[in-house]
Design goal:
Elements lengths: L26 E7 L4 E5 H18 L6 E5 L4 H12 L3 E4 L6 H11 L3 E5 L4 H5 L9 E5 L13 E2 H5 L16 E6 L9 E5 H15 L6 E4 L6 H14 L2 E6 L4 H10 L4 E4 L1 H8 L14 E5 L5 H11 L3 E6 L5 E4 L12 E3 L5 E4 L12 E6 L13 H5 L2 E2 L2 E10 L4 E7 L4 E3 L2 E3 L1 H9 L4 E11 L3 E10 L7 H14 L8 E4 L13 H13 L2
Parallel strand pairs: 1-11, 3-4, 3-5, 5-6, 6-7, 10-11, 10-12, 12-13, 13-14, 25-26
Antiparallel strand pairs: 1-2, 8-9, 14-15, 15-16, 16-21, 17-18, 18-20, 19-20, 20-21, 22-23, 24-25
Helix pairs in contact: 1-2, 6-7
Length: 533
């Protein structure tokens, strides 16, 4: 049997079946707000809530195969919405609360979404969309007590849909290849790509990630990712509910001391954080005074984690943070698995022999110690099916029997992967994936900017940050005030986390003979400057 065959779902499969087989009396979620509000809900009550919503959505007119854009914060209702949509056979488009009208308009138009489900505090960006959206039939509002029994500005309170609906709802008979999630990547040279994930992807993901997360039946699991990102589907949603454990959900801003206290107070056994969160926690004064003795498994994903941070947690808490590597297009591909010796500085090993390899530009396997493309076998069940409305695009990244990820590494004789860097211009900062095109497009809308290039610049805390090199129009002088103005300008045109934390004014951008900007030259310059600090 090939290694990936064990992850193939039954032909007819709905991923919510994984969530409904657990003890209905067991606590599914413990929710805490920044203001100290606390709620908890059992599996039985969570499924009943989702069933009432599924009934209401069906009665409203949503049907299997429809697409629904969901923009929610860390809240119990986010879990119920995802469960309800999946049971109904509706495809979810995860969307961050930080997206702007421009970002949302593209996703709604491209996906031909029939509905949006939006938290009451962030409806303004949807209301700003002036584009014609002929497919959009329903605007559903979540969480506003004042709006429960009324319709306002075309928004329907989602709670009203649930009123009078039964606590039971039979899941639609979905095929394992039916689309469950449509996740949009960051655009690097154009618009974001819609990554299609099936119900069968969820089946494979759950089985692949078990040896990385090391979740056990009596665990309380805290995965800090927010809804709107593929990582939320990975861990807080699928890995928690699919394994039938108790998930801890904190709806508040990141503060290192607060996080450390919550791990201690709520007896967190499994922790999944971004590298940036671990970096900041490791620098907390009095770190040794926190009691994290209950923490058994700590994992990190999104970008490589600094070795000194791993050492600090090991020395202070005797816990080893284990890196994991994957993409929006897949799931965990390489990681420091719980039953594998750690090689500090390495990415870890492939999830199974033969599934992930290092290949050349023709898709041929490279010898150990030779840098090449990280590539995943095209038959792996957790690899995405296609890019939405662009099936040929996936094939552009296929070399022989492998899908090339865009990252480069080498593999040693023991099967450990050692990361070398990205093969493209994507910027990963604090776990966020940022396309330079989006930043540059926003900057170019400013009257003072003639040309610009956005690149990844090394940063001790965030791993990397966005840095913009800007050529100003004649007669315009660079200044600290202009830097702040340009940063604020970018935030109005795209999601705030994408803004350039550093801006450098230069006379000319390095270019190829054909006029293409040589971002690689700018990146190398930043890396050299960082090493010399």
């Amino acid at each position: 049997m090939k290694p990936y065959e064990q992850w193939i779902a039954p032909e007819y499969y709905n991923v919510t079946a994984e969530m409904e087989r657990h003890d209905p009396e067991k606590i599914a979620l413990k929710w805490l707000s920044e203001q100290g509000e606390y709620e908890e809900i059992t599996y039985g009550k969570l499924v009943a809530m989702a069933n009432r919503l599924a009934g209401g959505l069906s009665e409203l007119g949503l049907q299997p195969g429809d697409r629904v854009l969901v923009m929610m914060p860390r809240h119990i209702m986010a879990y119920a919405i995802y469960l309800a949509c999946l049971k109904l056979g509706v495809t979810i488009i995860p969307s961050s609360e930080m997206l702007r009208a421009k970002d949302l308009a593209y996703r709604l138009r491209h996906s031909e979404a029939r509905a949006v489900v939006v938290w009451h505090g962030v409806t303004a960006e949807v209301d700003k969309i002036g584009d014609d959206l002929p497919s959009l039939a329903f605007r559903l509002l979540v969480g506003s007590d004042a709006q429960k029994d009324t319709h306002s500005n075309g928004w329907t309170p989602i709670e009203a849909l649930m009123d009078g609906q039964p606590d039971t709802f039979e899941a639609v008979k979905t095929h394992r290849d039916d689309m469950a999630v449509l996740a949009y990547t960051s655009g690097t040279t154009g618009n974001p790509k819609g990554v299609m994930h099936s119900h069968g992807w969820g089946y494979a993901h759950l089985r692949i990630t078990r040896s990385w997360l090391d979740i056990r039946d009596d665990d309380t699991v805290w995965a800090t990712a927010a809804p709107g990102w593929q990582k939320w589907i990975w861990s807080p949603f699928l890995s928690v509910l699919g394994n039938g454990v108790t998930g801890f959900v904190y709806h508040g801003s990141f503060q290192a001391g607060r996080y450390l206290k919550l791990i201690q107070q709520y007896g967190i056994r499994v922790l999944c954080c971004t590298p940036t969160e671990y970096r900041i926690m490791s620098k907390t004064d009095g770190l040794e005074h926190y009691d994290l003795s209950g923490l058994r498994s700590a994992v990190s994903a999104g970008e490589p984690l600094n070795q000194e941070v791993i050492r600090k947690f090991k020395n202070v808490f005797d816990i080893t943070i284990r890196d994991g590597y994957g993409q929006t297009e897949s799931t965990l591909l390489i990681g420091n698995l719980n039953d594998t010796p750690i090689r500090l500085g390495s990415m870890g090993k492939a999830i199974s022999p033969g599934v992930v390899e290092i290949v050349d530009e023709e898709g041929l396997l490279l010898p150990t110690g030779v840098v090449g493309n990280i590539a995943v076998h095209v038959d792996m069940p957790a690899l995405f099916k296609a890019y939405y409305l662009d099936p040929e695009r996936r094939e552009l990244n296929v070399r022989g029997s492998y899908f090339v990820t865009g990252d480069r590494a080498q593999k040693d004789e023991e099967g450990y992967f050692w990361y070398e860097g990205r093969g493209d211009d994507i910027i990963i900062s604090s776990g966020y994936t940022i396309g330079p095109f989006e930043v540059e497009e926003a900057l170019m809308k400013h009257a003072a900017v003639k040309e610009c290039a956005a690149v990844s610049s090394p940063d001790e805390l965030r791993g990397h940050i966005v840095k913009a090199f800007v050529v100003l129009k004649e007669g315009v002088r660079g200044s600290a005030e202009l830097v702040k103005e340009l940063q604020a300008h970018v935030k109005t045109w795209t999601a705030p986390y994408k803004y350039p934390r550093q801006i450098e004014f230069i006379d000319d951008l390095p270019k190829t003979n054909t006029g293409k900007i040589r971002r690689v030259e700018l990146r190398e310059r930043e890396e050299q400057a960082f090493r010399q600090r």
